[in-house]
């Protein structure tokens, strides 16, 4: 049985991008179609397959680029975004979308194990690597645990601030991972199409004294991000 045309083009593009650096823009669908003498639909399908495999990523209204190594989120470990990005040889950057002190509703109070009406830091941040949007994080931290979050801190690693400056130690965390469709706000910030599938994570982290430190909602583009689970058999 003959190999589909789009798979042949996919293999050709895959071989070609091996010589390109991460985040380099590849040729347009039109140029690739002309280069390999196929239809634009065939070129598009080949590109989409490589995007699904995490070898390319697309920026709306800009173009298609060579992907670098995906970020790994180890479920069994609490790894801060800044540390993870630096370990991959990339430059981390944080854009604060919104910060406010809010009153906890039933949902937030439940996750933080506080009373409805208690005051909470609400921090929405876009986390970037080499100026590319990677995740959108919404942190909720009770004022009863951390009274102040200085402006300088919300633009960098909160974990480093807690550990190095406040000597606050995180003992453990519980994380839930699922899929969700990108709404208008999230799609715009992560630069993905509306209703595109995203990785959605909820994390509740706990201090050494058993007090809940934070509840975090994270939205991640699966083209740039994957979740890695370490399992161990229980005897």
TrEMBL record:
Entry-linked Pfam families: GntR, UTRA
GO biological process entries: negative regulation of DNA-templated transcription
SUPFAM superfamilies according to UniProt: Chorismate lyase-like, Winged helix' DNA-binding domain
PROSITE patterns: HTH_GNTR (PS50949)
GO MF annotation list: DNA binding; DNA-binding transcription factor activity
Residue ranges crossing the lipid bilayer per the database entry: none
Alphabetically ordered keywords of this record: DNA-binding, Transcription, Transcription regulation
PANTHER family given in the database record: MANNOSYL-D-GLYCERATE TRANSPORT/METABOLISM SYSTEM REPRESSOR MNGR-RELATED (PTHR44846), MANNOSYL-D-GLYCERATE TRANSPORT_METABOLISM SYSTEM REPRESSOR MNGR-RELATED (PTHR44846:SF1)
Protein name listed in UniProt: UTRA domain-containing protein
Native species: Turicibacter sanguinis
């Amino acid at each position: 049985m003959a190999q589909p045309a789009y798979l042949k083009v996919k293999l050709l593009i895959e071989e070609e991008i091996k010589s390109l650096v991460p985040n380099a823009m590849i040729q347009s669908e039109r140029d690739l179609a002309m280069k390999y003498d196929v239809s634009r639909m065939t070129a598009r399908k080949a590109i989409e397959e490589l995007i699904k495999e995490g070898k390319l990523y697309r920026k709306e209204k800009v173009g298609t680029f060579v992907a670098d190594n995906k970020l790994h989120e180890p479920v069994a470990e609490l790894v801060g975004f800044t540390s993870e990005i630096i370990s991959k040889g990339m430059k981390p950057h944080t854009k604060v979308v919104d910060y406010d002190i809010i009153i906890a509703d039933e949902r937030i109070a439940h996750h933080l194990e506080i009373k409805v009406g208690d005051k909470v830091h609400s921090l929405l941040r876009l986390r970037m690597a080499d100026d590319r949007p990677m995740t959108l994080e919404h942190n909720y931290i009770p004022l009863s645990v951390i009274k102040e979050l200085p402006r300088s801190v919300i633009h960098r690693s909160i974990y480093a601030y807690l550990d190095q400056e406040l000597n606050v130690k995180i003992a453990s965390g519980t994380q839930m991972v699922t899929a969700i469709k990108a709404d208008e706000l999230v799609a715009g910030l992560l630069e993905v199409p509306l209703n595109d599938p995203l990785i959605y994570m909820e994390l509740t982290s706990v201090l050494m004294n058993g007090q809940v430190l934070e509840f975090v909602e994270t939205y991640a583009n699966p083209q740039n991000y994957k979740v890695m689970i370490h399992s161990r058999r229980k005897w």
